[in-house]
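Teaching note: in complex prediction, the entire set of molecules is handled at once rather than each chain in isolation. The prompt given to students was simply: 'Predict the structure of this complex.' The entities are:
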Amino acid sequence: EAGVAQSPRYKIIEKRQSVAFWCNPISGHATLYWYQQILGQGPKLLIQFQNNGVVDDSQLPKDRFSAERLKGVDSTLKIQPAKLEDSAVYLCASSSRGSKGNEQFFGPGTRLTVL
Amino acid sequence: TQLLEQSPQFLSIQEGENLTVYCNSSSVFSSLQWYRQEPGEGPVLLVTVVTGGEVKKLKRLTFQFGDARKDSSLHITAAQPGDTGLYLCAGSSGAGSYQLTFGKGTKLSVIP
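The expected output is the structure of the full assembly:
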């Protein structure tokens, strides 16, 4: 079974530029999450999708971050414009509704550096 | 907001030593998970505990969920260099909620 795919793996941009990340979850997983992991910290949930609907985006900085999952499969996360403090690893995870203990499967992440 | 505090933040030990890392909260969780994350990779699930007082073993790793479901520990026996990584605990607050709250992690280095 293929895992969660993310691209790109690395991205370097200057502040005020825009960037987009892509995630393809495990086939059949209805729930998709985007996390931000700043160096030295644990992942922080940004947004959760159930199929193509948003379940929770309370911690998403909506003035600059946006995310979509139009067909309930792939998802994109966009930052526009980027700030220095957005430098982090952006992790995508998916889970199957009803999976034991809310098990989430993570992709390798996209490491963003904002200069 | 539910918070999970992990300790210690960093741990460097010699191969063959034993260690315990802790995950504590003032909140009750319906389940708690431990993940291991290596550099450049996403976290990988090690175990899920759901019952207060539950103990699970995974080879040399022993996981315990506190009786009150507010805390957990991970004990590694005879650590090996392959155990090196960031250990994260994550709690889920309730049935039907698929969200996880992560601690900041314990960065473990096992020196050969």
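Point out the following to students. The CA atoms of residues 40 and 88 of chain A lie 10 Å apart. Chain A has a mean pLDDT of 92.
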